[in-house]
Protein backbone atom coordinates (compact mmCIF):
# COMPACT_ATOMS: atom_id res chain seq x y z
CA UNK A 1 0.00 0.00 0.00
CA UNK A 2 1.30 3.43 -0.94
CA UNK A 3 1.74 5.80 1.97
CA UNK A 4 0.81 9.42 1.42
CA UNK A 5 1.95 12.28 3.65
CA UNK A 6 1.16 15.96 3.20
CA UNK A 7 3.22 18.99 4.22
CA UNK A 8 1.98 22.58 4.52
CA UNK A 9 5.07 24.79 4.73
CA UNK A 10 4.41 28.40 5.79
CA UNK A 11 7.19 30.85 4.96
CA UNK A 12 7.32 34.53 5.93
CA UNK A 13 7.32 36.03 2.45
CA UNK A 14 4.31 36.87 0.30
CA UNK A 15 5.34 39.94 -1.71
CA UNK A 16 8.71 39.18 -3.30
CA UNK A 17 7.67 37.02 -6.26
CA UNK A 18 11.25 36.40 -7.35
CA UNK A 19 12.16 35.02 -3.93
CA UNK A 20 9.01 32.88 -3.79
CA UNK A 21 9.83 31.43 -7.21
CA UNK A 22 13.36 30.55 -6.06
CA UNK A 23 11.93 28.72 -3.06
CA UNK A 24 9.52 26.84 -5.33
CA UNK A 25 12.31 25.80 -7.68
CA UNK A 26 14.37 24.50 -4.78
CA UNK A 27 12.06 21.51 -4.23
CA UNK A 28 9.78 21.25 -7.29
CA UNK A 29 11.92 18.61 -8.98
CA UNK A 30 11.71 16.18 -6.06
CA UNK A 31 10.30 12.89 -7.35
CA UNK A 32 7.19 11.25 -5.87
CA UNK A 33 5.56 14.47 -4.65
CA UNK A 34 2.52 16.32 -5.99
CA UNK A 35 1.99 20.06 -5.56
CA UNK A 36 -1.48 20.62 -4.11
CA UNK A 37 -1.48 24.40 -3.69
CA UNK A 38 0.78 27.45 -3.47
CA UNK A 39 -0.89 30.42 -1.83
CA UNK A 40 0.78 33.83 -1.41
CA UNK A 41 -0.89 36.65 0.52
CA UNK A 42 0.44 40.19 0.27
CA UNK A 43 -1.27 41.54 3.41
CA UNK A 44 -0.13 38.54 5.45
CA UNK A 45 3.29 38.66 3.74
CA UNK A 46 3.22 34.89 3.81
CA UNK A 47 3.24 31.96 1.38
CA UNK A 48 1.96 28.45 2.06
CA UNK A 49 3.37 25.58 -0.01
CA UNK A 50 1.22 22.45 0.16
CA UNK A 51 2.31 19.14 -1.37
CA UNK A 52 1.86 15.45 -0.75
CA UNK A 53 3.49 12.17 -1.67
CA UNK A 54 5.66 9.34 -0.46
CA UNK A 55 6.85 10.22 3.08
CA UNK A 56 10.59 10.18 2.40
CA UNK A 57 10.09 12.30 -0.72
CA UNK A 58 7.98 14.80 1.23
CA UNK A 59 10.70 14.98 3.88
CA UNK A 60 13.45 15.56 1.30
CA UNK A 61 11.41 18.24 -0.46
CA UNK A 62 10.71 19.99 2.84
CA UNK A 63 14.40 20.03 3.75
CA UNK A 64 15.25 21.65 0.40
CA UNK A 65 12.44 24.19 0.65
CA UNK A 66 13.29 25.15 4.22
CA UNK A 67 17.02 25.49 3.53
CA UNK A 68 16.34 27.80 0.59
CA UNK A 69 13.82 29.93 2.51
CA UNK A 70 16.12 30.30 5.52
CA UNK A 71 18.97 31.36 3.25
CA UNK A 72 16.88 33.98 1.42
CA UNK A 73 14.59 35.48 4.08
CA UNK A 74 15.81 37.92 6.73
CA UNK A 75 13.26 38.24 9.53
CA UNK A 76 14.80 41.52 10.66
CA UNK A 77 13.13 43.13 7.65
CA UNK A 78 9.80 41.29 7.78
CA UNK A 79 6.45 42.99 8.32
CA UNK A 80 3.00 41.46 7.81
CA UNK A 81 -0.42 41.19 9.40
CA UNK A 82 -0.23 37.45 10.10
CA UNK A 83 1.40 36.14 13.31
CA UNK A 84 4.87 34.71 12.66
CA UNK A 85 8.12 33.99 14.46
CA UNK A 86 10.43 32.73 11.74
CA UNK A 87 11.46 32.69 8.09
CA UNK A 88 10.10 29.15 7.90
CA UNK A 89 7.32 29.77 10.37
CA UNK A 90 5.39 26.54 10.77
CA UNK A 91 5.69 23.13 9.08
CA UNK A 92 2.90 20.65 9.83
CA UNK A 93 2.99 17.11 8.45
CA UNK A 94 -0.45 15.56 7.93
CA UNK A 95 -1.16 11.83 7.49
CA UNK A 96 -3.29 11.34 4.36
CA UNK A 97 -3.31 7.65 3.43
CA UNK A 98 -1.89 4.44 4.89
CA UNK A 99 0.35 6.33 7.31
CA UNK A 100 -0.05 6.66 11.06
CA UNK A 101 0.24 9.77 13.19
CA UNK A 102 3.27 8.18 14.85
CA UNK A 103 5.02 7.87 11.49
CA UNK A 104 4.20 11.50 10.67
CA UNK A 105 5.66 12.52 14.04
CA UNK A 106 8.91 10.73 13.20
CA UNK A 107 9.11 12.62 9.91
CA UNK A 108 8.51 15.91 11.72
CA UNK A 109 11.21 15.16 14.27
CA UNK A 110 13.70 14.20 11.57
CA UNK A 111 12.94 17.45 9.76
CA UNK A 112 13.27 19.40 13.01
CA UNK A 113 16.66 17.87 13.69
CA UNK A 114 17.83 18.76 10.18
CA UNK A 115 16.67 22.36 10.41
CA UNK A 116 18.20 22.70 13.86
CA UNK A 117 21.53 21.64 12.37
CA UNK A 118 21.19 24.58 9.96
CA UNK A 119 21.22 26.96 12.94
CA UNK A 120 17.47 27.46 13.33
CA UNK A 121 15.78 27.08 16.76
CA UNK A 122 13.01 24.49 16.31
CA UNK A 123 9.94 23.79 18.43
CA UNK A 124 7.75 20.69 18.13
CA UNK A 125 3.97 21.05 18.47
CA UNK A 126 0.70 19.12 18.47
CA UNK A 127 1.27 15.33 18.27
CA UNK A 128 5.06 15.78 18.15
CA UNK A 129 5.16 17.58 21.50
CA UNK A 130 4.93 15.82 24.88
CA UNK A 131 4.80 18.93 27.08
CA UNK A 132 1.17 20.00 27.36
CA UNK A 133 1.86 23.72 27.84
CA UNK A 134 3.65 23.97 24.51
CA UNK A 135 1.52 21.74 22.31
CA UNK A 136 -0.42 24.49 20.51
CA UNK A 137 0.93 26.86 17.89
CA UNK A 138 -0.48 30.02 19.57
CA UNK A 139 1.28 29.20 22.86
CA UNK A 140 4.63 28.68 21.16
CA UNK A 141 4.28 31.67 18.85
CA UNK A 142 2.93 34.07 21.51
CA UNK A 143 4.80 37.36 21.26
CA UNK A 144 5.88 36.46 17.73
CA UNK A 145 9.36 37.08 16.32
CA UNK A 146 9.82 40.28 18.30
CA UNK A 147 9.50 38.46 21.65
CA UNK A 148 11.38 35.28 20.74
CA UNK A 149 14.84 36.40 21.86
CA UNK A 150 13.65 37.09 25.40
CA UNK A 151 11.37 34.05 25.45
CA UNK A 152 14.25 31.70 24.61
CA UNK A 153 16.09 32.80 27.76
CA UNK A 154 13.42 31.03 29.82
CA UNK A 155 14.37 27.33 30.25
CA UNK A 156 10.68 26.45 29.82
CA UNK A 157 10.89 27.74 26.26
CA UNK A 158 14.21 26.28 25.18
CA UNK A 159 13.98 24.92 21.61
CA UNK A 160 13.58 21.18 21.04
CA UNK A 161 16.24 21.24 18.32
CA UNK A 162 18.88 23.66 17.13
CA UNK A 163 20.71 26.45 18.93
CA UNK A 164 19.52 27.70 22.30
CA UNK A 165 20.44 31.24 21.32
CA UNK A 166 18.21 33.53 19.26
CA UNK A 167 18.93 33.64 15.52
CA UNK A 168 17.85 37.15 14.41
CA UNK A 169 17.92 36.32 10.70
CA UNK A 170 15.91 33.09 10.71
CA UNK A 171 13.83 33.45 13.86
CA UNK A 172 12.35 30.12 14.98
CA UNK A 173 10.39 27.31 13.33
CA UNK A 174 7.49 25.21 14.64
CA UNK A 175 6.97 21.71 13.24
CA UNK A 176 4.93 18.65 14.11
CA UNK A 177 2.11 16.35 13.01
CA UNK A 178 -1.59 17.14 13.28
CA UNK A 179 -5.15 16.43 12.19
CA UNK A 180 -5.98 18.14 8.85
CA UNK A 181 -7.16 21.64 9.69
CA UNK A 182 -9.16 24.04 7.55
CA UNK A 183 -7.66 27.52 7.10
CA UNK A 184 -10.76 29.66 6.63
CA UNK A 185 -10.84 33.45 6.33
CA UNK A 186 -13.90 35.71 6.27
CA UNK A 187 -13.55 39.26 4.90
CA UNK A 188 -15.86 42.00 6.22
CA UNK A 189 -16.94 45.32 4.70
CA UNK A 190 -15.48 47.36 7.53
CA UNK A 191 -12.01 48.69 8.31
CA UNK A 192 -12.74 48.98 12.02
CA UNK A 193 -10.38 46.56 13.75
CA UNK A 194 -12.25 46.82 17.05
CA UNK A 195 -15.39 45.42 15.42
CA UNK A 196 -13.31 42.58 14.02
CA UNK A 197 -11.93 41.79 17.47
CA UNK A 198 -15.43 41.70 18.96
CA UNK A 199 -16.57 39.25 16.28
CA UNK A 200 -13.50 37.09 16.84
CA UNK A 201 -14.34 36.80 20.54
CA UNK A 202 -17.64 35.15 19.64
CA UNK A 203 -15.99 32.25 17.81
CA UNK A 204 -12.50 31.86 19.22
CA UNK A 205 -11.86 29.06 21.70
CA UNK A 206 -9.75 31.22 24.01
CA UNK A 207 -12.59 33.71 24.55
CA UNK A 208 -15.48 31.31 25.02
CA UNK A 209 -16.33 30.46 21.43
CA UNK A 210 -15.93 27.14 19.67
CA UNK A 211 -13.36 24.79 21.21
CA UNK A 212 -11.77 23.96 17.85
CA UNK A 213 -11.41 27.50 16.50
CA UNK A 214 -8.32 29.69 16.65
CA UNK A 215 -8.97 33.14 15.23
CA UNK A 216 -7.59 36.64 14.95
CA UNK A 217 -8.81 39.88 13.33
CA UNK A 218 -6.48 41.33 10.72
CA UNK A 219 -6.43 44.56 8.72
CA UNK A 220 -6.35 44.08 4.94
CA UNK A 221 -4.76 47.39 4.03
CA UNK A 222 -5.11 47.14 0.25
CA UNK A 223 -8.83 46.24 0.41
CA UNK A 224 -9.63 48.41 3.45
CA UNK A 225 -11.37 45.42 5.00
CA UNK A 226 -11.12 43.48 8.22
CA UNK A 227 -10.46 39.76 7.98
CA UNK A 228 -11.42 37.14 10.53
CA UNK A 229 -8.59 34.69 9.95
CA UNK A 230 -9.18 31.22 11.38
CA UNK A 231 -7.61 27.84 11.82
CA UNK A 232 -10.35 25.25 12.26
CA UNK A 233 -8.39 22.51 13.99
CA UNK A 234 -11.15 19.88 13.88
CA UNK A 235 -13.85 20.31 11.24
CA UNK A 236 -15.68 17.22 12.54
CA UNK A 237 -16.36 18.87 15.90
CA UNK A 238 -16.88 22.38 14.54
CA UNK A 239 -18.06 22.44 10.90
CA UNK A 240 -17.45 25.31 8.51
CA UNK A 241 -21.10 26.33 8.11
CA UNK A 242 -21.60 26.73 11.87
CA UNK A 243 -18.71 29.16 12.15
CA UNK A 244 -19.79 31.05 9.03
CA UNK A 245 -23.32 31.53 10.33
CA UNK A 246 -22.07 32.67 13.74
CA UNK A 247 -19.79 35.29 12.22
CA UNK A 248 -22.55 36.43 9.87
CA UNK A 249 -24.89 36.88 12.84
CA UNK A 250 -22.31 38.71 14.96
CA UNK A 251 -21.37 41.00 12.06
CA UNK A 252 -25.02 41.99 11.63
CA UNK A 253 -24.97 43.41 15.16
CA UNK A 254 -22.56 46.09 13.93
CA UNK A 255 -24.23 46.63 10.51
CA UNK A 256 -21.34 44.81 8.89
CA UNK A 257 -21.62 42.33 6.03
CA UNK A 258 -19.50 39.47 4.78
CA UNK A 259 -17.83 40.43 1.49
CA UNK A 260 -16.31 37.07 0.66
CA UNK A 261 -14.41 34.15 2.16
CA UNK A 262 -11.15 32.32 1.52
CA UNK A 263 -10.16 28.70 1.93
CA UNK A 264 -6.37 28.63 2.14
CA UNK A 265 -4.66 25.46 0.96
CA UNK A 266 -6.29 22.04 0.61
CA UNK A 267 -9.64 21.28 2.19
CA UNK A 268 -10.76 17.76 3.18
CA UNK A 269 -13.75 16.71 1.09
CA UNK A 270 -15.56 15.59 4.23
CA UNK A 271 -15.44 19.16 5.54
CA UNK A 272 -17.22 20.34 2.40
CA UNK A 273 -19.77 17.54 2.66
CA UNK A 274 -21.05 19.21 5.84
CA UNK A 275 -21.44 22.50 3.94
CA UNK A 276 -23.44 20.74 1.22
CA UNK A 277 -25.63 19.06 3.80
CA UNK A 278 -26.42 22.32 5.58
CA UNK A 279 -27.00 24.71 2.67
CA UNK A 280 -28.42 22.37 0.04
CA UNK A 281 -30.33 20.09 2.44
CA UNK A 282 -28.90 17.08 0.62
CA UNK A 283 -30.66 13.81 1.31
CA UNK A 284 -28.93 10.85 2.93
CA UNK A 285 -28.79 9.14 -0.44
CA UNK A 286 -26.09 11.54 -1.65
CA UNK A 287 -22.61 10.00 -1.79
CA UNK A 288 -19.22 11.62 -2.13
CA UNK A 289 -18.64 9.19 -4.99
CA UNK A 290 -20.95 11.45 -7.03
CA UNK A 291 -18.28 14.16 -6.99
CA UNK A 292 -15.78 14.03 -9.84
CA UNK A 293 -12.89 16.14 -11.08
From TrEMBL:
Pathway: Amino-acid degradation; L-histidine degradation into L-glutamate; L-glutamate from N-formimidoyl-L-glutamate (transferase route): step 1/1. InterPro entries: Formiminotransferase_C, Formiminotransferase_C_sf, Formiminotransferase_cat, Formiminotransferase_N, Formiminotransferase_N_sf, FormiminoTrfase_cat_dom_sf, FTCD. Residues 180-293 form the Formiminotransferase C-terminal subdomain domain. It is found in: Cytoplasm. GO terms for cellular component: cytoplasm. Keywords: Cytoplasm, Folate-binding, Histidine metabolism, Transferase. GO terms for molecular function: folic acid binding; glutamate formimidoyltransferase activity. GO terms for biological process: L-histidine catabolic process to glutamate and formamide; L-histidine catabolic process to glutamate and formate. It comes from the Bacteria. Residues 3-179 form the Formiminotransferase N-terminal subdomain domain. Its main location: cytoplasm. Its EC number is 2.1.2.5. This is glutamate formimidoyltransferase. It comes from Fusobacterium nucleatum subsp. nucleatum (strain ATCC 23726 / VPI 4351). The lineage of its organism: Bacteria, Fusobacteriati, Fusobacteriota, Fusobacteriia, Fusobacteriales.
